[in-house]
């Protein structure tokens, strides 16, 4: 297999591009991760430390809220498979998935759209998160989509069933979580955690 680097992602360059399936994802060597969008394979590079710090911090914040409210939703950080269109040509690994319908879950991943997805972007992964994944998340029924941008210190919140225009917050804001009426995340605490 041959790859061309596209920021954090590697795109398959073979003639097969556009016809990859989940079987090709399953056949990758141990430790290699990739996503599929309409049969196009995007290889994923290892994340940076700041990415992982944000991933852990947010996952814990969400988990603690759900646990303290005895909620039925599950929060699952990457790597975790989302069979977003329930076909064999689309497969995502969101940074954080919140799934409230537990019937969608099995040991392989989530079958269908999570209720809430968080992607943590770097400058090199913007195209993937803003342009390629956004319409798929909207089309498949993701209710809330957050793009956390460490470089810009901002969070774009898409309420996909209401509007295509995001609400943009800074890392000093307290951001309400729309799928819960009484939950908001104070991102100023993240800055304290990162320093």
From TrEMBL:
SUPFAM superfamilies cross-referenced by the UniProt entry: Restriction endonuclease-like (SSF52980)
Gene3D superfamilies from the UniProt entry: tt1808, chain A
Protein name: Putative restriction endonuclease domain-containing protein
Domain named Putative restriction endonuclease: residues: 26-177
Species name: Acetatifactor muris
One Pfam family of this chain: Uma2
InterPro entries: Nuclease_put_TT1808, Restrct_endonuc-II-like, Uma2
């Amino acid at each position: 297999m041959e790859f061309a680097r596209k920021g954090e992602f590697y795109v398959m360059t073979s003639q097969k591009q556009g016809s990859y399936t989940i079987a090709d994802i399953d056949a990758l060597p141990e430790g290699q991760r990739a996503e599929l969008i309409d049969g196009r394979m995007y290889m994923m590079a290892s994340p940076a430390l700041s990415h992982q710090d944000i991933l852990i911090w947010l996952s814990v914040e969400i988990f603690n809220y759900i646990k303290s409210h005895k909620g039925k939703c599950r929060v699952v950080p990457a790597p975790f498979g989302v069979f977003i269109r329930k076909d064999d040509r689309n497969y995502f690994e969101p940074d954080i998935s919140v799934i409230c319908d537990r019937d969608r879950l099995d040991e392989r991943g989530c079958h269908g759209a999570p209720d809430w997805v968080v992607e943590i972007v770097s400058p090199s992964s913007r195209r993937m998160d803003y342009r390629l994944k956004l319409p798929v998340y909207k089309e498949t029924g993701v209710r809330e989509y957050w793009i956390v941008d460490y470089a810009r210190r901002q969070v774009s919140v898409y309420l996909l069933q209401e509007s295509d225009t995001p609400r943009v917050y800074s890392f000093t804001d307290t951001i309400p979580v729309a799928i819960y009426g009484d939950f908001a995340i104070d991102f100023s605490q993240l800055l304290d955690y990162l320093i």
